[in-house]
User: What shape does this take?
Amino acid sequence: MSGERTFALVKPDGVKRGLVGEIIGRFERKGLKIVAIKTIRITRELAEQYYSEHIGKPFFDGLMNYITSGPSVAIILEGKDVVPIVRKMMGVTNPVQADLGTIRGDYAVFTGRNVIHGSDSPVSAEREIALFFRKDELHDYVRADEGLLYD
Ligand code: DAT
Ligand code: MG
Assistant: This one.
């Protein structure tokens, strides 16, 4: 099985709205492996590193306030092609355009409160995983259904 990994984050609105179980359940049922998971209150300093690509954009201050406004749930998922799979399961950034059946399409109505983050490339995934997790927080194990998920 491929060891490709991605980083996902249930944002503070998702946590406060009680959507953590729903979202994790979708990933589990899809066949993705949870290799790390924790609740974290993102500091302003971490938020600026995490979203450094958006520094200077008009929505940046609002994004900082939103992402630091309460606890988030940070997750590392593993599986073949996990980066594009999680992006597809999230739906596009603006929930108005996100397809029904995606997380944003089903549970959000506004870009500034779009419930979930997922890495947009393997390079971003590696950077984001290193920002949020120590190596000893990742766990290696075999899913009971792994032989059915892959040939
Ligand atoms: P994504 O989260 O789909 O990767 P992104 O990286 O372009 O999207 O933006 C990061 C987050 O910033 C996004 O989830 C919500 C917020 N954001 C992006 N564009 C925005 C906008 N035009 N107005 C308000 N918030 C925005
Ligand atoms: Mg992004």
Remarks:
- The beta strands are 5-10, 33-41, 71-78, 116-118.
- The CA atoms of residues 53 and 144 lie 38 Å apart.
- The mean pLDDT is 97.
- Residues 4-134 form a domain with the Alpha-Beta Plaits fold (CATH 3.30.70.141).
